[in-house]
Fold this protein.
Amino acid sequence: MPQPNFIIAGAQKAGTTAFWSMLKQHPQVFCSPIKEPTYWIVKDWPEAPRYMKNLNLPESQRRFSIVEDPHKYENLFKGSESYPAIGEASITYISCPWVAERLRNHLPTVKLIFILRNPRERAFSHYLMHVKKGIRSLATIDQDIWKVESRLFGSQSWEVGYVPFGLYYEQLTRYFQYFTREQIKIFLYEDFCKNPLKVMKETALFLGINSDFESKTNLEVNLSYRVSKKNILNNFIDENSILLRKIVKKYPKLAKFIEVKQEKPKLDDNLSKALTEYFAHDITQLSTLINRDLTAWLQ
């Protein structure tokens, strides 16, 4: 059974969904039917089985796409034998400490793609996503954005949070330790937003496929911002955002009763400065590691 020969490994809130959507249009690319199977993270994860039932649902209805069983992971690539580029995308691979080594042990020739976003903006975007879901509040962002939690995966733990996910130098160093530079392709989020077709062309060259094919762009700018109202219905909706999307799509007039449309919040200047100062050293090291000028991230 074929295995992936390329993986989009992160980062979260850095345009990976749009990137994946464009790349899968290429006729020489076979993409896993499940985006973010996270297989190389979840081995021996005791909580995984309770999510597995979601894999029996149509992809559009799945709350989680976690794949733990090796046979199920292999089946994601069934029918890909004739494709030169076979891949999956799991955005948390970049930050999980043990994934790089596992990939090296099992897929030593795999090619890895990363999209990096200004860590300050990435953290804020990540936080806003949770505000929209009702998990966080903008009123407490100054404290909550710095919070770190530990996730237990069998005998291994992993520190996660809005800020840790943006420490790219620390994360990518692990990949450069186990893979050659020829196997790693790094894009910046701003470059992808500015010229997605150019990024797609570079990706095709990296994967060794036809670089003349042009995917349809489907980049959306979030000009509006919706926040669920705190009511009885919201408690149920927050547990299943898929239901919220279905309700809003089928009954658009009902949306005004369950969510508030407003201008997208902006990052406070003081918090922006604090985040920039926190990430400054990591950004400076990252700039040298990937040979890119990241001065704009420090401003």
The CA atoms of residues 136 and 144 lie 8 Å apart. Residues 230-240 have pLDDT under 50 and may be disordered. The longest strand covers residues 111-116.
